[in-house]
Design brief:
Blueprint lengths: L5 E11 L4 E11 L5 H13 L5 E3 L11 E4 L5 E7 L4 H10 E8 L3 H14 L5 E5 L2 H8 L5 E9 L2 E5 L4 E5 L1 E4 L9
Parallel strand pairs: 1-8, 5-6, 6-7
Antiparallel strand pairs: 1-2, 3-4, 4-5, 7-11, 8-9, 9-10
Helix pairs in contact: 1-4
Length: 187
């Protein structure tokens, strides 16, 4: 018998001072049985970093043709593709061929550093790819905010994000490993 996803609800207020975006989103997040609180909350943070009315979560870890998050325009063209973790080069190249801009948010401490040292030089020529590292301490602190029902506020400014609920606040310093070339930057 297959395990079912656990449903989380989040009311997310976003104040992105870099993009001049201010919005409120009511989100339903399906957490796959193999997904950790760290990864789920990182998905939520990435949603806040790219928040828009058309941004949506992908179907999950078991669906290789969809990212963790994506945004399509009204014609179906993929404007933004966001992956988490340490995806393989083939998946990143395929995403870059399908989407206007691709973001990879790596995490995982030393293993993320090793992954980037191995794969980074081979991805340097992809102009529509941005790779951002989220430090381990920040990912662990984000997991502490996970609740089945959440009311969160996220402020984004100058490559940093603050995610908070009624009782705690987490500061996340985003580390750019590769920036988009000639395209709008985030973060």
């Amino acid at each position: 018998m297959a395990l079912k996803a656990t449903i989380y609800k989040a009311e997310l207020q976003v104040a992105d001072l870099d993009r001049q975006y201010y919005g409120q989103h009511v989100l339903t997040i399906a957490r796959h049985p193999s997904e950790t609180d760290e990864r789920m909350m990182l998905r939520l943070l990435v949603f806040a970093l790219h928040a828009s009315d058309r941004l949506a979560f992908g179907r999950g870890l078991s669906t290789e043709d969809e990212p963790a998050l994506w945004q399509r325009d009204l014609s179906g063209r993929i404007e933004l593709w966001a992956e988490l973790g340490q995806p393989d080069e083939r998946l990143i190249r395929r995403a870059c061929g399908r989407a206007d801009s691709v973001y990879v948010y790596s995490y995982g401490g030393n293993s993320a550093d090793i992954w980037w040292r191995q794969i980074g030089p081979r991805l340097a020529g992809l102009a529509n790819l941005a790779v951002v590292h989220v430090p381990t301490a920040a990912v662990e602190a984000l997991a502490g905010l996970a609740r089945r029902s959440m009311q969160l506020h996220c402020t984004v400014q100058d490559g940093q994000a603050w995610l908070s609920d009624q009782s705690a606040s987490v500061q996340v310093e985003l580390v750019s490993r590769q920036a988009l070339q000639g395209l709008p930057r985030r973060p």
